[in-house]
Structure formats: structure tokens, C-alpha cells
Design a protein that fits this description.
Length: 247
Amino acid sequence: MTQNLSGRFKQFYTEESKRYHASRYGTRYGDLFHRLHLHVIEELLDRLPRQSRILEVACGTGHVTSLLAGKGIPFVACDLTPAMMVQSRQRCNGKGAFVEADAFCLPFPDSVFEGVLSTRFLHLFAHPEQQRLLTEMLRVLKKDGLLIVDFDNAFSRWFLSVPYAAYNIIRYRRLAPYAIYNSIRPTEKMFRELGLSEVKSIGIGGTHLILPAWFSGRLAFALGLSHRSGPLRLFAEQFVVTGAKKL
């Protein structure tokens, strides 16, 4: 079952690879999300000791990988789709190591990375498969290492269903992309049940921010930062969950 699923995703993203980065980050909102997302990821990475070795799972076209390279962080990036990694390598200017890998069976020994990072990936899988993927990420993470993973926000998708539908029809000419949505509290609970401590979630983006983005990128970015925590986090497009491996 996993092989069939992985095969379908590999075929899809091979075909999608040439337009993926531009379609995700080349629009006004895509650029805003890109800046908000990297702002949070960079802040979390700064918590790690200098020269911590990072594994990025499902690096895609290098949206986050280029941040790792730019900060001089030693990293290994893996993805199922070589065509996506070609672009990631280009954005990293020869820095880091790249490995073709299935995230359900990572080709690394136990407990070798101080940090494991995966973004814009887990929303492709049902919740039991999310748990399997997280377990595999934790296998290669050292004790006290940091796990950073993001999810699509269920409350935001439900509450703002009309704006999301309009955005997808205009941008992608379809009602909605394939995605599995997570709720914040149950996802934090899943992290704790997997043996993580210091679990925290941070909200990122929201397609409703496209309205202020038309007037001012600076204003939209400031409003986006207000979605990181508190009540406005519920309206964020995604949320990042972090935790430290206890065992």
C-alpha cells in the first residue's frame, strides 16, 4: 500500500516539478506565505546549537533547503522525486547533501541528526500515516533533538471555506487541492504520545491575508505575524509543531 502511494506521489511531483515553485511562491500571496513560513522556521532553527546537523524530509524544490544553505547549517535533504531535488540543489549552490529517499523508510541509522525538519508534506497523508512518518523521523533524531513539522489547519479551512474555495478556483482552476487537515490540539497530543516534550505550535499564513497584501506587503506580513499564537492562530493556513525527543 505504501509503495503504491509513494509511486503515485513520485509520478505526480515529477510532472509537477517544473511549475511547482512558481505556482506555490510566485503569486502575491505565495510570496507572503514564503516570507512568513521562513521567518518561523529560521526562528526555530536558531534554537539549535551551532553546527547541528539537520535532516530535511521531502525537501521539494528547495523552499526551506535554501534557508539551511544560506545559514551555513550542515544538512542532508531527501526527497522521493529527483526532478524536484534538481531545483533544490540549484538553489543551494552546491551546499549540503541530497539523497533520493522514501520518507516511510529513511536510509539513515538511528539517532544521527540533531534536528529533523519537514514542511508542506504531512498534509498529503491520512492521520495514521502521519504517525508512521513522524515515528520514522524520530528514529533518526538524536535524544534531545528538535523535530519541526507543519500541517494544514482544519479550523481555518472550515471557517474560511468560501475564501479558500475562491482562491483555489482562481489560482488552480479547481475547488480544492488534495489535503488532509489537522486540528492543533490533537496534533500536539500526537506529538506528546510519540515521546516529544516542549511541544509547541505556531500559526503561519492564511489566504485571507491576500486582501491586505494587495495594498501593502509590509502590512500583510505584520498581520500574518499576529496569526502565530493566541486566537488568531486558529485562522492560520498552516501551523508548525515542534518538540524535543525525550528518549
